[in-house]
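dumping these here so i dont lose them again. two proteins, back to back, each one seq then C-alpha cells. dont judge the mess
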Amino acid sequence: MRILPRTLFGQIMLALCAGLIAAQAAGIWLTLSDRASFGEGLLGSFAAQRIAGVISILDDLEPAERHRLIHALNVPPTHISLDEPWATPTEPVGEDAKPFILRVEQELERPVVIQVLSIKRAEPRRRDNSGAALPRPPESTTPVKAADADSAGRAAPNPAVESERRINRRPWNSRVLFVEGQARLTDGTVVTFRHSLPAAGLEGPLRLLGLLAILGLSVAVLSAWAVRRLTLPLASLADAATGLARNLDRPPLPENGPLEVAKAARAFNAMQAEIKRYLETRAQALAAVSHDLRLPITRLRLRIERIAEGELKSKMESDLSEMDEMIGNTLEFLRAGASGEKTSRLDLNALIESVTEDMATVGAQITLHGDAVKPMLVRPQALRRCLTNLLDNARRYGGGNIDIAVAERPDNVEIRIEDRGPGIPQADLERVFEPYVRMESSRAKHTGGSGLGLAIARAIARAHGGEVKLALRSGGGLCAILTLSRNVEPA
C-alpha cells in the first residue's frame, strides 16, 4: 500500500505542509526553550534578591527586634525561621546551589556565610478546588528543632510544617522549584529560609501554539487553493489526452492559467487540430479511391458478361466480388467512428436477439445468458454492425457454438461473446484490431474476410464511449468483450 500521494496536487501539498509543520515545530521549540530559560532565570534572580534583602534587613536589626519582624517577612512563597540550628547537609545538593549562593552574595550589603541545603522539584501533593495539582515542597534534609511550648502553654508550631502550610495556601498550577538554605549573620544568628519558585505557566505557550496553529491552517488553506488552481488545468489536460483517441471532435481546452499551463494547452489544441485534419484528409483520400474503384469494377462486370461460361469467368467474378467487398468494408471502416446516423433509445435485448437470429440462419448455434434491464442511447445500425462483426468473427474462426453473456452494471453494459475455436496467441490479441490484419494460421483466404471486421467493431464501440477487447477463453477459444457506457452520448 502506497502512503505517499501519487497526484501532483497531493505531492505539492505534502511538501508544503510537511515543510511548514517542521518549520513551525522548530520555531515553537526554540521559542518555548528560550521562554523557559528566561523565565527560570528571572524567577531565580527574584528569589535571590528577595532572600538577600531579608538577610540584609535581619542583619541590620537588633536580636530583640528580629523576632517581631519575622512574622511580617514570612510571606509566601518565602518562609523565614530563626529557631533552627546550623545544619550539615546529609547529601549533595547539586550544581544548582553554587550559582544561587553567588547570586545571593552579590545582593548582600555585608558578606555572610550562606549554605544551600536542598534544591528540588516539588512533587504534586493534592489538588485545589478547580482540580489543579498543588505541589508538596520537599522535606528538609536536616532535622528541625521545635520549641516545647510558648509562654501561653500552647505547642509551638513546627517550622517545616508551617512552611508547608504557607506554601500550600497558594494555588500553584505548575511545577515548583523548592530552595532551602541557611545564612549565618554577623552576630552568629542562624537564619533558615525556604522559598518556592513557580515555573512558567501554560497560558503563554498555549496561546503561542494557538497562534501558530491559526497561521499554519491559514497557510495550508491558501496553499491548497493556489496549488489546486495550478494543477486543475493539468488534470483537464490529462483528461483531454485520455479521451483524444475516442473523440477528436471534443471542444478545445481553455488556454488559461499560468504561462506554462496555457502554453501546454495551446500546444495540445494545435496537436488535436493537426491530427484531426490528417485523419480527415486520409479518410477522404481512401474514400475517394475506394469509391472511384467501383466504376472500373462495374465495367469489368459488364465485360465479363460477354465471356462464355467457364472456370475463367467464375474466377474473375469471384475476384471482382472480393474486391467489391473489400471496398465496401473500407468505406464502412472509414465511416465507423463518424456515422451520420441519429441516436435513439434502444432495447439492447431486442437488438441482440435480432442479430443472433441472423447468425442462426447461417449455421451458428448461439446460447444467450442475461439481459440488459434499461434501454440505452445508441446508434442502432452502427451497433448492429458491431455485434454482427463480432458474432461473424466467432462463427467463422471459432466454430458454430457461441455463448453470449449480457451483464448489466450501473454505468455500463458488458456483452461477452465466447467461441470454442483454436484462439490466437496472447501477443496478438491487440494486433488483430489493426486494419487489414488477418491471422493466417486460422483465417485462411478461402474463409473470407478483409481484416477490417474487428477494427470496425472497435471504432463503433469507441464512438459509443465503450471498448472492445479480446481475451483467451478458459478451456480454449476466444472471448470478445464489448463494453457500452451509459454515461457517454455516442459521437
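---- next one ----
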Amino acid sequence: MKKLLLSILFIVHVTWVTGQACPRLSSPANGSIEVPVNTTISWPPVPGIIGYLVSLGTTPGGVEILGRRSAGLRNSYTPEVGLPENTTIYVTIELFLSNGQLVICPSESFTTEEVTTPPPCTTLAEPADNQGNISVKSEIIWTYAPTATGYRLTIGTSAGASNLLDDFDVGNVLTYNPTGDFPQDSDIFVTITPYNENGDAGSCIEESFTTGNAVVDCNAYFDPVMGEIVPRKPESNFPGQIGLCRNEIPTRIGTDDTADGYRWFKINEDGTEFLLSSTSEVLLSEVGPYRYEAYNFVEQGGETFECGISKDFNVVLSEIAQITSVSTSQEVNGRQIKVEVSGLGDYEYALDNIEGPYQNSGIFNGVSEGTHTIYVNDRNGCGIKERIIERELSPDDFPKFFTPNGDGINDFWQYIAPRERNEIQLSFIQVFDRYGVLLVQIMPNSRGWDGTFNGQPLPASSYWFKARDNLNNEIQGFFALKR
C-alpha cells in the first residue's frame, strides 16, 4: 500500500490586482481529498490582466513537472498526462498585469486519490480511425487515458502486424513521431496500450488509417539554367522567443523572411490554434505560446502547393534595462567596470560600441583609463540602455615634482586637469610631510602650494598628498620638492 499522499499547493502572494484580490481555487476546493488524477485546476477569472503562468513541482515553487506554462487568459489548467498519485505536488500561479507587474498569488491544497486499477484504453486523435489520404510523414497522437503513466505502441501494415513497431514503450507522452516515413498508399494499423503500476489496459481495439501518395517535393533542387541550388521552402532565422515590451502593449512584430505567404497563430491551452494574421506582421497583446508559418507556392503537375516552414515561439513580458549602479575598481590587469541592472528582460552587455560584441556578464576587466560607454541590450528587442563612465581621478593627474625657487617656472604644485572631457571635480587637496603632518590644504582652483609652511620654505624632500573628488573617490600619492 502506498503511503505518500498527493497534495497540491496553490501559491499566491496576497496582492490586489486591478481592484480584485488574487483568486482562490474553485475546483477542487481547498482541503478536498480523493481528487481524481485527471482533475482540472480552476480559479475565478481575474479582470484586467494579460495572462496566467502555471508551474507544478514536488517542492514549494518547484517546476520539475511543469515549468511556468502559459495559460493565456484561460483561468484553468488540465495536466495533459494527469497528476502523479499519492505525491505532494505544488502549484504556483503567476499573474501578468497590464502594467508589466508580475504577481505571485496564497496557498491552497488538495489530495488526490490512490489509483488501484489499470487505466482504460485510449483512441487515436490524429490521424483519426479510418481516416484516409494521410501524409507519410504524419505524427501519431492519442487521447489521455486517465490514471495511465505510460503507453506501448504496436504499428503494422496489416491487421495484427507489428512490422513497423513492436510493443514499443514511448513513456508518459501522448505523441509518437516515427523515425521514418510510413509507406505510401498503405493501410497502417495501430494498437495503443496504456499502463500504470497496477497493470495495463488489456486488449485495446486496433485502429487504422490509410496513407496517400506524396504530392509535392519541397526539397531544394539544382537549377541547371541558373547553375545553383534553389530552395523551395523559405529560409528563416525567426527566434524562439519574442519580448512583449512592458510599455508597448500591444506590440507589433514582423519577420524579415522572404516568402509568398505568412500565418501567425496563438496556441490555446487545449492545443487548438487561433489565426491572428496572414501578413508579414502581427499585433501581440498576450504572453504565451504562438506559432509562425512562412511558405512559398510551388507548381507541380498543374496544381499549386505550399512549401513552408513552421516555428513555435514564446512571447514573454520584457522591458528595457534600468541601470541601477556602475562601480569601478583598479585590478592587477587594469581597471574593472561592474554594471548592475534591474528589469524583466534578458540582458547582454557591450563596452564602447552599440553594435557589440555583447557579453552575458556585466563585468568588464582590463579596461583602459579614460571615458567609456556601457550598453545594455534587451535580447527580447525592447531596447538598449546606455551609461557614460567618466574618467576617474588618478595620481597621474598631479605633478611628480616642482621647484619653488622663484624663477617663475614650476614654482607651484597643483592638480592638472586632464584634457579629455570629464566631470571630475575636486573637493580638497591636502599635502603632508613624510611623518604625516598636514602642511597645507589647497583649493583646486588656486595657484597651488608654494613649498612653504607657516611662511617658511621647506627643504627639498619627498612629500605626499591626499585628494578627494566629487564622487567621493579618494586617492593619495607622492611627489618631490626640489631646490
